[in-house]
Amino acid sequence: MTLRTFLAMMVALICATTATAGPVRLKDLVQFDGVRGNDLVGYGLVVGLNGTGDGIRNAPFTEEMMSSILERLGVNIAGERFRPKNVAAVLVTSVLPPFARTGNQVDVTVSTIGDAKSLLGGTLIMTPLSGADGEIYAVAQGTVIAGGISAEGDAARVVHGVPTAGTVVSGARVEREVDFDFAALTQMRLALRDPDFSTAERIERAINRQFGRQIAIMRDAGTVELDLARSNAISPAHLLSQIEGITVEPQRSARVVVDQRSGTIVMGEDVRISRVAVAQGNLALTIEETPVVVQPSPFSDGETIVVPRTAVGITEEPGTGLAELPNSTSLSEVVAGLNALGVSPLDMIDILKSIKAAGALHAEFVVQ
């Protein structure tokens, strides 16, 4: 896909989105104080692998843990030669959702920490999952769904995806609840996902207009505080159910995001470029080695030698010349001006950097 086609598609997409864009629900703009998940982590074993498990010599901790588990099950293997190839040590991670209750099930992610080649067909055995406080909140067990395929022969091996990591759907069962009395809150804060003073002020006005009284106040660009006592709501849960559907039209900062690895360029609707002239060209460096073999005269004591010959040249490839970008008042005009240069996306990234350095690009420039 050429840059011209890509930018044309981007303009069409953004124009279509802008035409139908409107207010956004409050639940999609903010995070509610106290409504959050908690990270869990555990260390366990995956068994049942088809010879793709850890090499015990390279991962002795796998043997130690397997021996410990078998001993707890009444199998004594002390002093025995234990060299299975169908076992892999893994780290198990998950997120305990907010308001999770005992018996709820959550997904877990399983990743190898040894030299196992694949988790395909494996089964995660009972693994306690602990929180940051060291307490066990869930226990995971189940069949691992790996995210890749691995195949090998005597002299070659092919890997597609990442077979050393996978998931267990609904593989962890909650055993302990987070001690948090949500109903006892008298004040609550709304944290904006993208802090902005204008958006926070609009949220404050929308909530107060909904209840007909001052129950919300903007503290800063990222926080709106609610007074639950003035809302006359039965509980904080009832209050949130009434306000999370309120729609607000957010304000966004002008931003240009570029990914240098893939050459992707994304520009927001509010990006503006002042009048500026741009010239773009490339230098091509060529090096050609043509060594010459020199033979000695017949019946002489000379040696055959190789004489190096190198041709080096630098040529300037045709560029776009000097192109003028006029004052832009809309995204379509910005794209049309940049599109007139007719350069590749990677060259466009360099051009945008230079325009930003010249002070003509009026947007936040993010490089990934």
**Biggest sheet, in brief?**
6 strands, antiparallel, barrel
Q: What would the average pLDDT be, to the nearest integer?
A: 78
Low-confidence stretches: 11-21
Q: How many helices does DSSP assign?
A: 7
- How big a fraction of the residues is strand? 35-45%
Strand order of the largest sheet: 3-4-5-9-7-6
Global outline = flat
Number of strands: 22
Helix-strand pattern: HEEEHEEEEEEEHEEHHEEEEEEEEHHEE
Radius of gyration: 32 Å
Helix content: 10-25%
Structural class: alpha+beta
Gap between N and C termini: 21 Å
Quickly list its features.
368 residues, alpha+beta, six-stranded antiparallel β-barrel, four-stranded antiparallel beta sheet, 22% helix, flat
Description:
This protein has 368 residues and is an alpha+beta fold. It contains seven helices and 22 strands. It has helices at 3-20, 60-72, 197-211, 228-231, 236-243, 331-339, 345-357; strands at residues 24-25, 30-32, 38-47, 87-96, 105-112, 123-130, 136-143, 145-152, 157-174, 187-192, 216-220, 223-227, 247-248, 255-259, 264-267, 272-273, 276-289, 292-294, 305-307, 310-325, 361-362, 364-367. The strands form seven sheets. Strands 3-4-5-9-7-6 form a six-stranded antiparallel barrel. Strand 11 and strand 12 (223-227) form a beta hairpin. Helix 1 (3-20) runs antiparallel to helix 6 (331-339). The longest helix is centred in the N-terminal third of the chain and has 18 residues, at 3-20. It is flat. The two termini are 21 Å apart.
